[in-house]
# Entry
Amino acid sequence: MSQEERDWLHWLKQVRDGGITQRQAAGCMKVTERWVRELLKRYERVGDGAVVHGLRGRTSNRRIEETIRGKALRLLRQPDWHDFGPTFASEQLARRQIRVSKETVRAWMMAEGLWQNHPRSVKEVHEWRPRRSAYGELVQWDTSTHDWLEGRGEAVRYLVRMIDDATSRSWGRFVRSDSTRENMGVLWEYLERNGRMVDVYTDHHAMFAVSPKPKESAEQRRSADRLTQMGRALRELGIGWIGAFSPQAKGRVERSFGTDQDRLVKLLRLAQVKSLTGANEFLEKEYWPEWNERFARSLQGVTDLHRPLTAEIDVASSLSHVEWRVIDNDYTISFAGRRYRIAREDVRAGMKRQKLRVELRLEGTLKGRYEGRYVEVAECGPKVPASPPAPRKPPRKDHNAGGKSRWMDGFWEHPAPPIWLAIEESNRHA
# Structure
């Protein structure tokens, strides 16, 4: 008998003995006078048990059958379910036509030793930044490194994810490496599905930001305006970039990765996914639709600030590896250790020694653009070295002898004959 029931019994005895009225007892027990009279009648029949609920000790009419409980426990004991928590396990049981609450599953698992209660502890508290008000106003972007397939088949370690700050709607792909090329591919898919967001919010990874030089001030960095390939692409697409200085600053995407590393890993295990292609197909058809349905906010009444991809925007050009090369006098350029020649029909006056924009597209093709117009470029092999000059006659070793010639030695010791004698001698020989 609970303390409340003992108090009720005390008030009933007070009414029976005339100490208080039925109205006063009803006020103390917080019930109606009619119910007090009913309890008094029951007290006369059964005694102190009148205040005990009549269903106590009886099996509930809503009790779950033992066959259903046994079926659920057999599933919970399977090796693939060994790390399932009560909430996730309840969801998976519902998919198998066993619909029980997560608290019921928790009680079953604790009774069978499959789950231990984990008391919550207060961690370091960070002040939350309020959500943005519009869809597409700010998109958080990050990569999570994890063994997503738990060693089954192909190694899949990188998940690139984009999550809207206002609604938590998400999109992402598994990639082979956390590189600029792979991230550009994920961004391209997002743009085709939703349009151009206003800003992206990332960390200061070298993919997004150029490391400052030693002793360089913030003003000097702004004036230098050095961009990575991703930074240049975002600027050309009209998308702003905001850098976060801590993981807590972009907590929405960080917390979502915690959910992914728990739920997504288990779902991929149940689906027996063993390849990168299969994992991305599961994301697109199963995981993202469920996430956006269950965990994201509804778009109803929310302003969409995504901008469309117009005909003036060349996404393939922006999302490529871009470098500038000087056109040589033979209308060739050097790129990635190879030589490329501009097609004859695309050659224009004034091209020599000018800069050509070289674009290495995501699909591997190479494009060249000169003054806003694309020109055809083709590999032409290594540059032929110039022929060596013809050998020259070796110079005289004694010429001038460095200012020490001896040809005038003794000149003044043998003077010429007088002029009249020289004339006579000349006439005689004539």
Summary: The CA atoms of residues 198 and 420 lie 109 Å apart. The two ends are 166 Å apart (CA to CA). The chain has 13 helices and twelve strands. The domain at 138-294 is CATH 3.30.420.10 (Nucleotidyltransferase; domain 5).
